[in-house]
């Protein structure tokens, strides 16, 4: 009898857990809206196109999520260091960006399984005196990094004698800093650097061939949204199988084919 009571209690607890964890998806469905935190940092992950439309690799994947959910999508802009606070505050249901699921970030938010891998690279002005990564290690070299990004930590480790200059905002600020001489070198995600440097005349920057790191990219939810996290992983698995993820990455990340359209 005792065993039966424990079994029934277990079923009841499982039922309560299931009911509680279904909350976010139910809320999104009832609201008819998926709220997504983004940063308009520039191509290839999130940008405003020539006609004023919001687009990019992460943006299009989020739009696919909303389409599969059958709800409309609302994008909410934040600086890089404001993305996780916006998610934790409940302003957004999830965040999509070129964000690495570090252990430190994982203490705050729940990441999906990685959907691609990238890494941090070093870049300089093509006609400047810094030609290699080793050149950027010289004492006093000004290194531009993004506040709160993994590149900030990696630059401090790779260039201990350099003057690390952290910028609050998006990756184009780092390219601007190197281009106008405020910084000698910059460190950021290689996919972002390649995409964002297309806004400058061809050959403006030298992007070093070696990477400072190998990093996965993932999307994030809150830990109190387990149903949404399960669904997002299911979504990423599905678009991987049916080829929509690779089509997205080939267009936005692995080429500059997007330039003629945006």
UniProtKB/TrEMBL annotation:
List the protein's name. Answer: ABC transporter substrate-binding protein
**Stretches assigned to the Solute-binding protein family 3/N-terminal domain:** 33-256
Any idea where the Ionotropic glutamate receptor C-terminal domain is? 33-255
- Determine if Signal is one of this entry's keywords: yes
Q: Which domain of life is it from?
A: Bacteria
A Pfam family the protein falls into: SBP_bac_3
Record key words, sorted: Signal
Q: Which InterPro entries match?
A: Iontro_rcpt_C, Solute-binding_3/MltF_N
Q: Which residues form the signal peptide?
A: 1-22
């Amino acid at each position: 009898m005792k065993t039966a009571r424990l079994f029934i209690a277990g079923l009841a607890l499982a039922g309560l857990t299931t009911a509680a964890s279904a909350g976010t998806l139910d809320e999104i469905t009832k609201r008819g809206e998926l709220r997504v935190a983004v940063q308009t940092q520039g191509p290839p992950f999130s940008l405003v196109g020539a006609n004023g439309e919001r687009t990019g690799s992460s943006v299009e994947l989020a739009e696919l999520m909303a389409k599969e959910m059958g709800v409309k999508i609302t994008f909410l802009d934040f600086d890089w260091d404001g993305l996780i606070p916006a998610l934790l505050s409940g302003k957004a249901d999830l965040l999509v960006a070129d964000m690495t699921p570090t252990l430190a970030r994982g203490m705050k938010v729940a990441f999906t399984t990685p959907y691609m891998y990238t890494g941090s690279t070093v870049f300089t002005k093509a006609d400047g005196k810094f030609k290699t990564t080793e050149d950027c290690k010289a004492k006093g070299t000004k290194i531009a990094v993004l506040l709160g990004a993994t590149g900030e930590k990696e630059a401090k480790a790779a260039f201990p004698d350099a003057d690390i200059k952290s910028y609050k905002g998006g990756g184009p600020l780092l390219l601007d800093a190197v281009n106008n001489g405020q910084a000698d070198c910059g460190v950021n995600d290689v996919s972002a650097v390649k995409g964002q440097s297309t806004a400058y005349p061809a050959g403006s920057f030298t992007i070093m061939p070696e990477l400072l790191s190998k990093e996965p990219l993932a999307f994030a939810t809150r830990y109190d949204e387990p149903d949404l996290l399960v669904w997002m992983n299911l979504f990423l698995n599905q678009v991987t199988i049916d080829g929509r993820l690779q089509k997205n990455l080939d267009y936005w990340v692995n080429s500059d084919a997007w330039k003629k359209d945006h």
